């Protein structure tokens, strides 16, 4: 795919930091995260469990509650800083200009309300002037866009009457209802079988291209990103350690952690050989190593890795936080 490098920037995140207050004091779950997403562009946010990718998504939506707090950085949506706007303005933007799809669709759907009630409310929350019939027609169209047959019948159903895959399609339809500028999808297909997953990925890709909607796809699965995204951000221990166009990053990773993730994919292992594993464990938030956070697990580490390492430019839109890169800049 061709990265949308020159596309209009819908979202620009700079220096994002999110902390949580714990019994051992405040810890940074996300630190110095910088992300840019253009109109119609699909960006993958990749990392192991605990890397900070879901916290990043929730931070962008303004959904971090106590004991968590966004303590630094800017989140610009079409030039408007979401950190500086009031709660009322943020509620106006959320679900309208910026939307989120969760891994569990029941975090979006109310089990005791019919689908039409929930979808119409999602529209009228941002457009009180629209009639119920016009809103219902928009709901029908949205269900059709995500491949749900017999939308009139389905609108009268309750969430428990849908399969897991169908519920997730409804959640995606709700996110698309108000034609948002950007959607953040937090591993929404992880619990689905591969056939349904492939269908939903294809539909999301098509919808983004047709409508110009920007998409951040949060996942631990590099195989999903390979077929979906234009660009990729790789997170480790709360920070972005590498970013770049999807094909270049997957073919020639710069950071040893990215290389380890790619080589851990089962299809990259020879038949009969043990699966490759990255040695060690992701560090606890309150016990982060000095300097490069990956160095305790890295075979290329030296004393220089004990110093703070910034994201460095390697050309071609590629950046990495490493002084011993696998690819020279």
TrEMBL record:
InterPro entries: AAA+_ATPase, ABC_Ni/Peptide_Import, ABC_transporter-like_ATP-bd, ABC_transporter-like_CS, Oligopep_ABC_C, P-loop_NTPase. Its main location: membrane. The keyword ATP-binding applies. CDD domains: ABC_NikE_OppD_transporters (cd03257). GO terms for cellular component: plasma membrane. One of its GO terms (biological process) is peptide transport. The keyword ATP-binding applies. This is Peptide/nickel transport system ATP-binding protein.
